[in-house]
Amino acid sequence: MLVMLSIKNLAVVEEIDVYFHKGFHVLSGETGAGKSIIIDALGLIAGSRGSAELVRYGNDKAEMEALFELRGDHPVWDTMSRLGIQGTAEEHLVIRREVTASGKSTARINGQLVNLTMLREIGEQLVNIHGQHEHQSLMKPERHLSLLDTFGFADINPLKIQYQQQYTDYAKIERELRDLQETSQKTYQMLDLYRFQLEEISSAGLEIGEDELLQEERLRLSHSEKMMEAIVGGYHSINGDGGMGSVTVAISQLEDVTRYDSKALDPILEQLQSAFYQLEDAAYQLRSYRENIEFNPGRLEEVETRLNQISGLRRKYGDNVEEILTYYEKIQHETDLLENKDERLAEMIERRDRLRDKLLQTGEKLSKVRRKAADELASQVEAELKHLQMERTSLRVNMDYIDDANGPEWNGRHIRITRQGIDNAEFLISPNPGEPLRSLGKIASGGELSRIMLALKSIFARHDQVPVLVFDEVDTGVSGRAAQSIAEKLFKLSADCQVFSITHLPQVACMADHQYLIEKHIVGDRTATRVTSLHEDGRVDELARMLGGVEITEKTNHHAHEMLKLAEARKDSSTYAVH
After folding, report:
1. Alpha-carbon distance 237 to 89, whole Å?
2. Last-in-domain residue among 300, 319, 338
3. Which residues of the chain have pLDDT under 70?
4. Phi, psi of 134 (to 5 degrees)
5. What pLDDT shows up at residue 574?
6. Which uninterrupted H or E stretch holds 163?
7. Does residue 139 fall inside a structural domain?
8. Taking a C-beta distance cutoff of 8 angstroms, is the pair 478, 503 a contact?
9. CB within 8 Å of 554: residues ≥ 6 apart
10. C-alpha angle 69/75/81, rounded to 5°?
11. Is 505 left (phi over 0), alpha (psi -120 to 50) or beta?
């Protein structure tokens, strides 16, 4: 359960710490007091996206922290272990979230930094929030299949995963087949172009690195005469009296006197001897290089011609020989594909048909499991609605294929294949006996939608083990006995999990185990929201306000007190005793 929620600098909340208990909690207060901000904070804790607009004006960041106390066998611990997040020996889980004024968001679980995806995976196992207008999603038939799959998750999901894996393969080959068919008109034009390019590159007989070698050779051939003059001059300078001859004389002179100061002169003599050998080696290399210098205008012309040929290919196909050859391999592959297009097309159609048949068979299995779940869901929703002042309402989950004239034929109909399956679901209701079943979105009132959604949430709560359920004005559009039935349903739900509800209805508030008053007050020149845990007298006053509005009379107070007493009696009775 949620033990504590701390909020700092979030919208109109300056700083609050709220402690919670087991059971049914109600948050009440005037419109605009900040009740929804508490829900927003829980949403951020559970992984909703943060934004800079949430940060209280004038502050650097908003901070939220929640402490959960969970059973040792709760599935969230396995999820945390899989994600590499450390648990605690006390079975406590702490989530901290910060949103800065620049919009940057960080989250930590038990002190460990986590990303938003990890936070959401953990958060959805801890908190389920029913938004203020979520019941309106029931008006969208495309949402109904998702609700059905949630209900029948254990049986549906394995088949759904198998189906979607097959659908991915099927969709991929459909795209490839479509692309191949779309290229048919351009095939022959492209083949002619590719064949010309292949011949042009192939006939050139290119070798990797050839262009660099030719450029070096051209440089040598272009300057061979100048190089010869320099090499001959250098050779004669080294080999003449001013080169090796001078060094030889210096060596001879030093050899005669080194015995007088060998310590100083021997190193110098060694340097001169080394210089002599180096000059001798340089002279040898210059002579060898001179003998290999080529004066060949014909070869220079050949090199220029070859480089011009390569340059022309570079302008068309790549910056160097290696890129040109890479392009050659690419268009060779494309040519092979185009030349074998008809064969490939037939092969792909055959493979597509096999994948489609397999997909349809899996889709039919998935459909049968869904239809079974649909009947069970309808039965359970009707049972829940009997306790929500809709005892004469009939509900069915209509399952049917989606007709598509361009789709494959299956069971005598042309149907559409989607990633979700080969059929769709739509909730149909008949609010009154004798009336035909009709689309939920077309005939249900806001109050009926709220109660149907509450019935669904009640059913799902028995399956998913989420410890905290939050309802933001789930009682919208109802009053009187219907409001009382919602209050009793929320109280019953709190037997298995912690329930929070924002409400303006006294019938709902009086059934709560714990009530919190949300109100604004002025601190200095700033408005701030505060949260007060109400006890008996405080609850009477708040219920009186909810009943009587601006003027609270003694009669209103008495009525509020009586409502609390009757609510306690209902909760203590065998029918409603759940805690």
Report:
1. 90
2. 319
3. 88-90, 132-133, 183-186, 188, 549-550, 574-579
4. -65, -30
5. 45
6. helix 153-182
7. no
8. no
9. none
10. 90
11. beta
Beta-strand ranges (E) seen in 111-219 are 112-114, 127-130
Is residue 255 a part of any domain in this protein? Answer: yes
Phi, psi of 504 (to 5 degrees): -115, 5
Give the residue among 209, 161, 425 at the shortest CA–CA distance from 321: 209
User: Is residue 259 in a domain?
Assistant: yes
CA–centroid distance for 414 within its chain? 35
Q: Is there a single domain that holds both residue 102 and residue 218?
A: no
- As a whole number of angstroms, the longest Cα–Cα distance in the chain is 136
What is the distance between the alpha carbons of residues 351 and 50, in angstroms, rounded to a whole number? 46
Cα(283)–Cα(78) distance, integer angstroms: 81
> Residue 469: which of 504, 494, 505, 506 has the closest Cα?
494
Angle formed at CA 77 by CA 74 and CA 83, multiple of 5 degrees: 145
Domain assignment of residue 38, given as a range: 1-126+466-534
For residues 241 and 121, state if they share a domain: no
Q: Give the gyration radius of the chain's Cα atoms.
A: 43
Based on the domain organization, do 1 and 99 belong to the same domain? yes
Enumerate the H helices of 240-320 as residue ranges. Answer: 246-257, 262-292, 297-317
Report the pLDDT value the prediction gives residue 549, as an integer from 0 to 100.
67
Q: Is 122 found in the same domain as 214?
A: no
Question: Number of structural domains, the chain?
Answer: 2
CATH of the domain at 34: 3.40.50.300
Q: Quick check: is 340 in a domain?
A: no
Q: What one-character DSSP code corresponds to residue 22?
A: S
User: pLDDT tens digit string along 322-354?
Assistant: 999 999 999 898 888 777 777 888 889 999 999
User: What is the CB-side half-sphere exposure of residue 398 using CA atoms within 13 A?
Assistant: 15
120 plus 214 within the same structural domain: no
Domain finish residue from 302, 319, 336? 319
Residue with tokens 């759904």: 160
Question: What pTM, to 2 d.p., does this model score?
Answer: 0.66
Helix (H, G, I), strand (E, B), or coil: what is residue 447?
A: helix
User: Phi/psi at 406 (nearest 5 deg)?
Assistant: -95, 0
